[in-house]
């Protein structure tokens, strides 16, 4: 038996590959999945596959997948929240995209970031867009330069590696010129 968790991340090509690879692995080209029993587990209300449509949202069926399914079990209930059903209901409303004002206020009240909050020194930030990443990196770099600038205004002696898209620097004539990504200064 092969158990594949987080199947919601799989796209059509992934399922076709699994279908054919298991046939090769089991050396049985005539049975679906080479005769191997598969359990697909996952939650389709979580993240979708990256860069491709989810298998449950296709305009067509995938014969290698849909023609081979023989049972479907959907769990109901919220076992994870059995000790705090109120929190479970609140999370469920967020999941379904229908939180109440009270839900939002409760989450915001529990938020530890206030107007005077200072993030930790080595915080790691994930961003969806490169421009957001670039803005954060620029702010960190400016802060680093401000803290480490020599008293005589000379150039920093430590090397700094820049990871930034479309970075430009002024040359001696004051003209902005593009800087190659991953340049070391």
Automatic annotation (TrEMBL):
Domain of life per record: Eukaryota
GO MF annotation: an example: helicase activity
Protein name: DNA helicase
Xref: InterPro entries: P-loop_NTPase (IPR027417), PIF1_helicase (IPR051055)
Keyword list, A-Z: ATP-binding, Helicase, Hydrolase, Nucleotide-binding
Species lineage: Eukaryota, Sar, Stramenopiles, Ochrophyta, Bacillariophyta
Nuclease among keywords: no
Presence of keyword Hydrolase: yes
Natural source organism: Seminavis robusta
